[in-house]
Amino acid sequence: MIIFILFCALLLSACTAQSPPQPDPAPLLVSITEVEGCQVQNNGLRVSPGEDAVFRLKMDPDFSVSGVDYDGEWELAGEGNEKTLTLQNIRVPARVTLTLTNRFTYLCYRANGGEGNGEYGEEVIKSCDLTNHIRPNTARASELFTRPGYSLTSWNTEADGSGERVGLGSRVTTEGWKTVLYAQWEKWSAEENFRFEIREEKNSKAAIRRGGPEIIHIAVITGYTGEEDRVVVPAELSGCPVKEIARDAFAGCPAQAIVLPLSLRKLEEGAFRGAKLTELTMYDNLADFSDQSFAGCEDLRTLYINAQEAPYGAIYHRENCYADKADLLIMAKGSKKLVFYGGCSAWFNLSPDVMRDDPLYRAYAVIDMGLNGTVNGVIQMDILSAYLEEGDILFHTPELSSRFQMMSDTRMGKDDARLWCGLDANYDLLSQADLTNVTGLFDSFCYYLSLKDRTASYTDVYEDDKGRRFFGPMGTIPFWHAVAEGIPLGDEVSLDPEALTPEKTALLRESHRLLKEKGVDVYLSYACLNVDALSPEEIALIPEMDERYHKVLGEEGNARVISHLSDFLYHEEDFYDTNYHLLSPQADENTRIWLRDLHTALEDLP
Q1: pLDDT one-digit tens code per residue, 130-169
Q2: Longest Cα pair distance anywhere in the chain, in angstroms?
Q3: Does the N terminus or the C terminus of the chain have fewer Cβ atoms within 10 A?
Q4: How far apart are CA 439 and CA 555, in angstroms?
Q5: 112 versus 211: which is more confidently predicted?
Q6: What is the pTM of this model?
Q7: Domain that holds residue 162
Q8: Do 273 and 393 belong to one domain?
Q9: Could you tell me which residues come within 8 angstroms of residue 272 by beta carbon, excluding any fewer than 6 positions away?
Q10: Which of 172, 187, 202 is the last residue of a domain?
Q11: 265 and 299 share one domain
């Protein structure tokens, strides 16, 4: 036994002699490039391989960190101006650069031939707080400048109008600390081109309180006799404000474009009956108008809306964040984008936590454009198409029960007030839509404007009664919803194989075709389905629905269907407050299935 112990000791001694102690690995130098707006209080750290580098940052009041060019994971924490930046698992020496965002930017407005409206001069500089929004809204109509005999119809980044056009009150992409915008004026068409009547009208109570007369005179246009290709309707005729356009006043008008005046309040039915216009510019203070005002205007394709009124959406409904979702898409121009789109099942059920852990999050700018299954899908698809680029991916999950998501119903109605409350934060989005594919737009818009009983600021965001915002990372729902609301689930759930025919899905298939032509890859999956909301007969239709979906939209369409409906069947206890909002654990699993199918599809590519 003693001999055995001595032998082991000699063996251990020999091994020790052959394997001398290894020196500790040399520390790695990690530093941050100093940039304006941030001071690094402990720069130039030396850490052992595998350790974290923790920097203390002191931020200037107007700045925030929006990006870190570190290859690994990083975390920013802290309140106020004192922040802690942790670079995790350092493996090699690194010099890291921070991207900072100044939450204030400045818009410089130039009258460009106009004059200040009394409060302002010919150049006005306004600060814009970007705490709540990526892009700032511009000044509204009549807010800054006037010009007798002209209408202010937009802003532009170039004085001659050759730069980026921005609608009045719409959002602009800023560069640096100051962006210059020039007023764009259009001269009124000659008075002799119009037939009109001067009528008496009782003045508003507010105007009378300000010392105005009880009776005023207004001009009502009853006819147009000119031959211009672009008609700029005057705001005054014979010195009286143009308030109304009468029935058939522009009937059959050959002009391709018409600009309505800021003074206008009413368009009678048939005012533009059968007019040939393809483009219309209007203001959102128009109070009385309808689809019938433009009856027979079959070529009207493009609508520019300028804001005179303050927005309403931020205090009306959560879909107000649609403009912010679109801003994510607009600001990702030139980057590879992975865009999720569908109804609120896409908005609520894309898990940001699961998505951030996926390799696709690092390869693409991930944006959730899901909104609501009851609002017009044609408008949304046109807006998406305007900003998606070659090499992008559209991951489309239309809700089978929604005729608007399936684009078999292109009408706009009262439910589209939810869409308008996002558009009124950036009316320029609507100008991307082809109006020849929708009906009911003017009825819907007039209804939305009539709802305004209060006004919001462009810097406001929608919050529910619990103080929760509905716009989070990537455009997803940011808050955890792990407990059902305890109220009956809303929203229709149904399955109808007859809705999946080439005829009824023609517009959806055409949208996919146009995206494919641009070099955008369209992958189709499914929205969640509450089987407890279906009848036994509908449950039996699930295999047929899946087969038709694959055939009509995939094999015979212009998208690739990569999932099966059977993977997205849930029960009533899995939902939060509607039949399309999953509880967060189920949303996590739903996202994993989406990503599993997308990865499989991408791996199959040649």
Answers
A1: 889 999 999 999 999 999 999 999 999 999 999 999 999 9
A2: 125
A3: C
A4: 30
A5: 112
A6: 0.85
A7: 104-187
A8: no
A9: 245, 249, 250, 251, 253, 258, 293, 294, 295, 297
A10: 187
A11: yes
CA dihedral 163, 165, 170, 175 (to 10 degrees): -10
Torsion (CA) 355, 356, 361, 367 in degrees, nearest 10: 60
Structure tokens at 496: 């109808």
To 5 degrees, how large is the angle CA 12–CA 17–CA 23?
Answer: 115
Query: Any idea what DSSP says for residue 491?
Result: S
Considering only CA atoms, which of 478, 481, 594 is closest in space to residue 528?
594
b/e map of 265-281 (b: 16 or more CB within 10 Å)?
A: bebbebbbbebbbbbbb
Residue 17 included in any domain = no
Are both 281 and 182 inside the same structural domain?
Answer: no
For 170, half-sphere exposure in the C-beta direction (CA atoms, 13 angstrom radius) is: 26
Q: What is the Cα–Cα distance from 194 to 226, expressed in whole angstroms?
A: 8
SS3 state of residue 64: strand
What tokens does 558 get? 């212009």
CA dihedral 192, 197, 198, 202 (to 10 degrees): -140
Q: Are residues 68 and 168 in the same domain?
A: no
Please give the mean pLDDT across all residues of the chain.
Answer: 92
Choosing from 248, 282, 306, the residue where a domain stops is: 306
Check whether residue 284 and residue 345 sit in a common domain. Answer: no
What backbone phi and psi angles, to 5 degrees, belong to 452? -65, 105
Do 220 and 363 belong to one domain?
Answer: no
Which amino acid, one-letter code, is at 478? Answer: P
* % residues pLDDT > 90 (the chain): 79
Nearest Cα neighbor of 58 from 84, 32, 33 is 84
**Closest to 522 in 3D by CA, of 553, 486, 546, 566:** 553
Total tally of structural domains belonging to the chain:
4
Q: Please tell me the distance from the alpha carbon of residue 283 to that of residue 269, in angstroms, as a whole number.
A: 18
Do 338 and 477 reside in the same domain of the chain? Answer: yes
Q: In terms of residues, how long is the chain?
A: 606
Q: What is the CA radius of gyration of the chain?
A: 30
For the residues of 127-163, what is the DSSP string, one character each?
Answer: EEE-SS-SS-B---TTSSEE-TTEEEEEEESSTTS-S
Paired residues of 397 in beta bridges: 342
Do both 96 and 131 map to the same domain?
Answer: no
- Give the CATH number, domain containing residue 81: 2.60.40
Give the Cα separation of 37 and 65 in Å (integer).
9
Give the residue among 418, 583, 338 at the shortest CA–CA distance from 485.
Answer: 583
